[in-house]
Amino acid sequence: MKIQIINGPNLNLLGTREKSIYGESGFEPFLKELSSKYNSVEFSYYQSNVEGELINKLHEVGFSYDGIIMNAGAYTHTSVGISDAIAGINTPVVEVHISNVYAREEYRHVSLMAKNCKGIITGFGLKSYELALQSFL
Asked: Where are the active-site residues found (predicted)?
């Protein structure tokens, strides 16, 4: 099984930014643990702060992977382009968020992507990614 994980803006700062919201761990150590726990899954990881690069990655993998786990960060609430890219590919996408977006600012309560995703997992820290993975297994 091939799973692509895509992280959007500012998620390269995990482990250093707003630790009370996003936790102490960087993403790479978490991914290493996840990969060893699910060694039958082939993981690919991509992170970008640039909206168009995220869209390009969706187009690149959206016809050949078994699943995409995507945390689009702030673009979740603003990007029609990412939403349209998800609608245009065959690979199912699960939207994830580390924090509980519904316990935060009101503008974070709206996802432009959600209608085109298989589901949404929010608020379980980095465990949100593992829960998304389990939906594909």
From this structure: 22, 97
